[in-house]
Amino acid sequence: MSNPPASSSPSRVTFASLTHRNLGTVKKLNSVLFPIKYSDKFYQDIIAPEVEDFCQLIYYNDVPVGNICCRLENKDLYLMTMGVLAPYRSKQLGSQALKRVIKAAASHSKPKVRRIYLHVQVSNTDAKRFYEKHGFKEVGIKEDYYKKITPRDAWILERILESEDKQDQEKP
Length: 172
Description:
Layout: E1 13-17, H1 23-33, H2 40-45, E2 56-60, E3 63-73, E4 76-84, H3 93-107, E5 115-121, H4 125-133, E6 137-142, E7 154-160, H5 164-170
C-alpha cells in the first residue's frame, strides 16, 4: 500500500506595515535588491504613520521576500522603491503589492491622491514593461537622475488615478 501524495498547501502571500521592529529586514532586502545605499532619513520616512498603507513588506509563506515604499508629495504618490528577491519573481508578488498601493492611493482622501509616479533606470526595460502592464505611461526622461550608477538617466512613469465616482459609474 503506497502513501497518498503529500498535499501541497497553497502559497501564502501576506503584507505587513513597516515598523521599527522590521526595519532591519527592509534594510537587508534593499541591500540585496538595489544598487543604492539608502539614508537613515529614508528609513525613518518609510515608517511614518501617514505612509503606512503605501510602505509594505511582502511575505511569501511567512518569509520576507520584498517590499514597496512610497511617499506622499502633495496630491502625488511617489513610488520610491519596489523589489522582490529574484527566486520569488514571476509569482505575481510585485503585481499584488502594486495593486494594493494603487487601491490604497485611489481611496486615500487626505490628501486625495491624483497620480502615482516613479523613476526607472533607462537600462531596466523589464521594470518599465512591468509598470506599463499596470497602467503606467512614460511621460519623460530625467537626465542624470542617478548619481552613482550608470546609466544615469531614468524614465519617468506615471499613472493617473481615476476618481472613485468615475470608477463607480463604470461598474455595471
